[in-house]
Each structure stands twice: as C-alpha cells, then as structure tokens.
Amino acid sequence: MLSSGPGLTIGPARRQRQGPCHGNLGYTKTSIGHWQSVVAGSWMRDRRHPFYRGLLPPQRVASVELEPPKLSSSPTTASTKKLFFEPSGQPGSIVHGPVLTGRPEPLGASIDAETGAINFAVVSSSSTAVSLVLFTEADLAAGRSSFEVPLNPYVNRTGDVWHVMLPGLRDDLLYGYRVNGLHQDTDADSPGHRHDQNRVVLDPYAIAVLGRRRWGQMGPNLAYGEGGVLGLMSTWPQAAAALPAGGPRVPAFDWEGDRPLNLPMEGLVIYEAHVRGYTAHESSGVTAPGTYAGMIEKLDHLQSLGINAIELLPVFEFNELEYYSQIPGSNEYRYNFWGYSTVNYFSPMGRYSAALAEGRHVRSTCDEFKQLVKECHKRGIEVILDVVFNHTAEGNERGPTISFRGLDNRVYYMLAPGGEYYNYSGCGNTLNCNQPVVRQFILDCLRYWVTEYHVDGFRFDLASILTRAPSAWHPQQYDEETGQPVAMSSGGAVVSAEGIMTDGAGVPTGTPLPDPPLVEAISEDPVLRNTKLIAEAWDCDGLNQVGAFPHYGGRWSEWNGKFRDVVRNFIKGTDGPWAGDFASAVCGSPNIYANTQAHESDWWGNNGGRQWRGGRGPSASINFVTAHDGFTLADVVSYNNKHNEANGEDNRDGEAHNNSWNCGEEGPSGKWEVNRLRQRQMRNMSAALLLSCGVPMITMGDEYGHSKGGNNNTYCHDSDLNYVRWDQLAADPSGFHRFIRLLINFRRATPALQRTSYVTEKDIQWHGELPHQPDWAETSRLVAFTLSDGKGGGLYVAFNTSHIPRLLRMPVWAGRVWQPLVDTSKVAPYDFLAADGVLSAGDVTAARRALAMWTADHTYPVLPWSCIVLVSAPEDPTATSMIRRTAAQSVGSRSQPGSGDIGPKNPMSWATNLISNQPPPSPGPQRPGTPKHYGRAEHGTYGNMSAVSYNDSNASASSSPLTSGRTPSSASSSVSSAPPRQSAPQATRANWRTFLNGASEAAAAALGSASPPGDTGGAATAAADASAELSLAEQAALAQALNENSELRRRLGLNR
Q1: Which is nearest to 121 in space by CA: 156, 97, 155?
Q2: Could you say which of 86, 320, 456, 461 is catalytic?
Q3: pLDDT digits (tens, 9 = 90+) for 324-377
Q4: Mean pLDDT across the stretch 130-155?
Q5: Can you spell out the DSSP letters for 824-849?
Q6: For this structure, is 358 an active site residue?
Q7: Is this prediction's pTM over 0.85?
Q8: CA-CA distance, 141 to 156, in Å (whole number)?
Q9: Which candidate in 139, 536, 702, 843 is catalytic?
C-alpha cells in the first residue's frame, strides 16, 4: 500500500493529530493542468529533450493523469499494472534494459515476480529532480558513479513517491539517489530544506549497505570535496545499497522450520550484549572475532548460563568511524563502539559480518545475521534488538548528508520554524516519529525485522521521543507562470498564533501526546502482536514516563531505572526509605506499575500519562542493576566516582550520580577484606536482581565481574574495556561465575519468581530479626521475607546490609525445615549449595549438616552485608530430632564457664574468615577512610564483626535451645566474644577441634542418659555414632573449605 499519498493518513492513527500532509494539498487542478500542458506535453513529444531540473516544481501528479500519446491504450481502460511497465523514455544501458515507469509501492528496491525487473521507489516530497545512481563496487571505492538514470517527474512520480523500474539489471550493482531541490543556506525563504545534488544519498529502505568491508577500515584516500568526488572523507566514504536478491541463482535462506519461540515475558532472563564486544578479545578463540559468526560459536555459554533472551546493542547499519580521532593524552582512537547512531534502519551492520570481510556479496551480511537468530532459537534464546528511532547519524546542521536529510529534511526531522533541529535525543537531531510518513517508515522497519529476520522483540532507546508531537510544514507553493517557489509566511512552517511550531493541529511540536499515533500503531499492529516491546521510558530533555508509558493494554514493558537506584542504595546500606522501596522492588514494583496514583512530582503521570498509570503486572518491569551505559557490576562496588579520563573529555562525560560504594578503597585493592566485601556485594546485588519479580536483565561481562576501571561511559572504546575477557571467565578465581549461573538457573526453575500478577499476603510475608516483625524505618538495614510456592513449600530470603551480623529467627512451617541454599558471606563454592560438579551431592549434604544446628531450630546467622536464601523442604523427623538434641547439647557446652573461646556458633561462617589466615579483628579504632559515624553511615568496613553484639531483646526473644538456660547477658557475651589472638590458622583449627570434640561428647552423654529402661547401651551407642558421624561431616566440610580457601588465595596471589 502506498505509504503516503495526497491527504492520506496511515494506519489506526487519529486524524485530528496529524498536521498538513505532504501530498497535493495547496494545488489546484488549474495549476496541474497548466504545468501539464506547458511542460509535460513538450516532454512527451520529444523524448530526447533533457530533463528540466532547475524549473520544474514537485508536482503531485499520478502517472494516470498524464497526457499519454505513446501509450498503447487509454489510461481510463489500461490497467495500473500495465501502466507501470510502460517505457518512461530513458534509454537502456549495458547493465539494464529500457527504463520503465515503475510503481510507487512497495518503497525501496523490490523484484517484480513475473518479469524479474527491479522496481525502485523513494519518498521525497520537496525535491525538484531525482536520479537513480548505480555503482559497481570499484567505482564506489573510487568515489564516482557508474550509471545515472534521471527520473521524469511526470512519469516516474506518483504523489510524493519517485519510482522507476529497470529490467535486466545486474544484481552485483549498488544504488543510491541524487536529489535536487531547495536548500535553506542558499534559499533564505525555504527554511528546513537541505537538498544537495552533490551528494548521493542512501535509500531509507535499503536492505544492505556497503561502504567499507571491515571494522575500522578507513575509506579510500580521495580528493574529497572536489567536484565529482563522492563521499565526505576517508571516515565517511560514499556508501550505497545492495539490490534485492531473487531468482534461481540466489537461493532463499534455509530457516529449517524456525518459528518464533514466544516465550512468556515473565520467564525471561535477558542478557544485554554487544556483537563485537562479545567475541573480539583474542581469548574468545572463535574463528571470526567480533562478528555474528563469532557470536554463534559462543552461544553455548549463554545457554549454560541460563539466558533465554539476548538484547543486542544496535545492529542496524552505523559508522564506527563517526567519531574517529585520537583521544587526547593517549595512543588510542575514538570509535562509535556502541552504535547508537543509525545510518540505515533496514540493514544489518555490515562490519559485524565475517562473510562481508571475506569479500562475499553485500547481501551475505543478511544471511549471517539470520543464522545467528536461527542458532539462538535452537538454544531456546530469543533475540531482542535495541533500536534507535529517536535520532540518526546525520546530526544537526553541521552533520553529514547521508540519507534522510537529503531526501526530505522537513519530513524526517523535528524542526523549528527557522529549520533548526530539536534535540530531545542529545545527539543533534530528533526523528519526527509521529509524522505520517516517518510513522509508516518505522512500522515497516519493525515488521521487516520480524518477518525477514525472525527477531522476537525490540527495546526502544529513549522511547519517550516516540510520544512527542511532530513538526509540520505547508507544502511548497510555486508560481504558475515562472515555476519558481513562492515565499510563504513563516517559511512554510505550521505555527501557532504565538509563532510556535506545531504538529499542524495546534499541538506545539515536541509536546508529549497522551495517545501517540506511532506507539498506538506499533501496539496494535498484527505482525508485531506477539513481539516483546520494551521502552526506555525517558529522553534527554527530562521527560520521564516510567510507570506511565502508553502501553495499550500492557503491551509494553519498561526499563525500570528506579529498581537500579533502589537496589544500589539499599545494598550499600544507605539511610533513607530504601528498605520499603527495596521490598516493593522485590515484588515487581507495584508502586510503579499497579498504582494508579502518581507522585505529586510526576508531571507526566499527573497530566497526559494519567490514563496509563496502573493496570500492569510485574512483567512490565525490566529490572536491572547495571547496563551498557554506566558502571559494570564490579565497578559499582569498587568506585565511588567515575573515572572517564580515558575518553579524552577531562572526565566531564558520563553520569556523576552512580549510587556506588567502593567498599573502603577506590579502585583496585590489595586488601583482602576490601576484595572480599566487594565479592559479597556483587552477589548481593545479583541476588536482589534475580530473586525479584519482574524481568531481570544482566549486562554482558557482569557474569564474571568485568571491570572497566571506573569508566561509566565507554561508548568510544574499541578495546578490552568493552570486550568479554573469556580468559577471566574461565579462570573464575572468586567463583562468581558459578554463583551467577546457579542463581539464574534457580530462578528459571522457580515459578514463584516468574509471576504475571503481584504477590498477595498469601504469597509473601515480611520479617525482621523475628518472624512477621519487619522494620521499615529509614535506618533499617534488614529486609527478610518468605515466598510461598503455593504447594506447601517456598523460600526464605534475607538481606542484611548493615555492618553488624544478625541472628534471624525464621518462621516455622509445620512439617518442613529450612535448607540453606545461598549465603553470600561464604567463600565459593559454599556461597551456593548445589551439586554441580564443583560440589558433589555429598558435599552439599555435609555443608547443610554443618548448619543444621541452626536450621533445626529455625534460626540462622547473617553476617554483615550478606544475603541468605533457604528453601523449605519436607522434614525428616528422625534426622531433625537427632540434630536438635546435638545442637542443644553443643550450645550447652559452650555456655559453660571458660568455654567462650571455642569459636563461633556457625562453622561455615567462621570458615569464611580463614581465607585471610586470621580470625576476625578485635575492636579497635576505625581505619583511615571509614565513615565517622560507623553505625549509621552509608558506607562501612568489612571485618569488625567481633566489635558488636546482639541486643538483649533479640537474644531473649527466642525460646530456642540455643538460648535456653542462659540469661540475656550470657547470650550476648557468647556471641560477641572474639577468638584469642593465636597464630593463624592454628588458633582457628585448635578452636574447631575443641568445639567439635566437646559437642560430640556432650551429645553422647545426653543421649545416653535419656536411654529407655532396659536399654543395655545400644541406643546410646547408636546416638553417639550418629553424633560422631555428624562431627566427621562437619570436619570434612571445614577441611574442604580450608582447602578451597588456600587454593583461592594462591590463585589471587594473596598468600602472606
């Protein structure tokens, strides 16, 4: 269907919101008839007559209205199809047959199925002349055209669409358009026009683009700027589009029956990835690093990690050399690495293609990307594209003319009355998204990527720009006698009485629309119906629509930046409303997506976005702690401030407000206590992300702790800063990769975390140190909850973000016990108790037995800045009874006089300190750099556990065997006492030996005295054997922890 004809409004958009169309408005039949008789007649009488480029106005005349002396039949009876195949007067050439009229649809280059001729159609409402330019690759590299076919405005134009058809065209050629018309720099009365006949521009609908074949390759060294030399400079050489493939010589891509996966949104775990950065590092070991093919070789990593959706940073054609220049103070050069500067929207990025680099046809890029999508689908991974419909690479008035600007600047860009560019994107221009032609272009593009490439969804960069009102212009008027353009008031801009640019219906340009036509059209489009639609619901002018982006029945999810901020603030232990906000984030942010009432500071939510508040479930929230722009996970816990000096902008770029904490020292640290705390915090934030309702998104490299050295804006670096270090991932010295892999797979196996509706009181209960007593004060550093699975089981999760340890009493669920699963305070692999080849099933059982003295009594100690997860499991009455008696007696032995030095209550927690070869430090003065108010500060220092004690009320509140028979003061003193300062690790080993032996002897004595009458000692012997077995298991777990710690210290070079 014709995308923009005279007065035509496309799709389901509301007509009253559209400005004047760029069709035949303002033209009378008299003016058309005049030009038809004066100019068209002479053209049709003499086909050798040169095209009258300088005078002809852009008439909106359909081919059927022209005087047809050469046609075989009358236009009133000739079929439209036959008319399209009529000769248009231009001669053939050695690369194509006689030129045909062509048809105005579809836009772009397409193959006629019956004849094999290629039809070209492009929108350009204000141009006075258009030529189709053909290139061989050799001529393209030389900066010259090979052939040019000028189009007849009376035969090759219908409405605003210029079209032509070429039979017998060689399919190895490339093409573009030379467009002539007004330019505001030379025509003062025509603001907003920027046609340049010296440029050859890309077809917006081009399916593949060739400029250079390899990433970072410079263009030819030509005399750019001189007459006849195409291209701008060696970093911006002339680019051209590939012709469509067709016929028996070009077999169709074999999808092997590939179909959309249609995974439920709530079940996704998204991995934000960069195609080049994923495999560019030499340690990837792939055949073609930094390409689609290279990424295919490493997809198994994502599958094993548990990822089922990848969100690819921009893969539409862009110019990586756009910013190319030497970075001041370094030997490196600045690249457009991320790709948020689109050159062409229908073409996959060519220099991500291994096939293109090898010299294959330009269209091979398309097949390589299709292969990537197909291989992802084979592994159960959906493909979501990060798309940039908010601006293009052409920038402001100082930018290059590549495509849209040279075709129809007034149509494609949001302009002010003087032709200035609105800059809601922060990148120099703003795409005029809700203008009818542009709106249809975006819809066509999205549909193409779904139908042609089988992609599963889109993430819209700065999506709030998609809701802004467009700018509108009156069509240019021409003098009937001279053919010259007529000056118009306000230069043709449709302005309000106050002189403000409008959308043509009185709405000021840039105003956020309550019912944006583009967003509505995307939401209701049948081809896009089952795709994932994700909005980055803000832009660079301060419009924030998080929680109220127009979602049309919940079709859209949103990047939830508030989740990131809340998690970072709570996990680092900041005073404020963070405990309550964190609890809401865990539930999927119902305060944002279910609450119909906007905060008083929410301008959009209280005005145009009011109707979009509420009504959505947890899957509306795309949860993330990090993203490509900002600190990596490792840097969030290693830097208080950004360090972007490597960008060459004096550290002025990048976000200054990062809500990060360096854990005691800025940047890389040789202090084990700092590095250990950082490892805890990384696990804590990952647990917060993956144990929350909503849709989690992980940033590439975070799965192994990739650092960018504190640089939070690495957009310009084609270096290790942005590359996955596969060598570091394989080494996994801290065990973090194992932890995150197990946690992701645990989430995917837990339906209670994948919700379509928000939790209720039946699903979740909140706790503090005691069950059902949460603390929501602004000084709270503890959030704990149980999450039911609806089948009698569930999870107990607690986050302690204080500098002091907590002893938590867990709720008692009849007939069930709590089995430890995650404890971020423990050294790997005991941070996640799962049999995975690193730990065996026996290892897991032994580790849980070592903690049974706590879990049997529904208690658990949580160290500072730690998270725990326990799973509810059916109780084994025999084992539980034995463990309780053993635990009670072992605690009784510790409560005897002189027993305060036998070690802490939790063996595995104590083992985490052995990694430093010394017990926890005794109380002492604060180390330099620690906060002044240690107990209430935002930041803290790891290691001073022995400096604090539980308060009396907490100690006495528990009636468990762990505290029975002791006064509150004795309970407090037993917890706060520190082991004596002996030589390490002999002191801790000696303490452990004393503790284990004492526990075994006390348990055996107690069980022996409780033997039933007539027993000859068998029961006591059996009980003693069971106790001894338990002690051996504990000792085995401790020995393994010591061995793991020793090996870990060796690999990190921390042995002292």
Answers
A1: 156
A2: 461
A3: 999 998 999 999 999 999 999 999 999 999 999 999 999 999 999 999 999 999
A4: 97
A5: TTSPTTTTB---SSSS-HHHHHHHHH
A6: no
A7: no
A8: 29
A9: 536
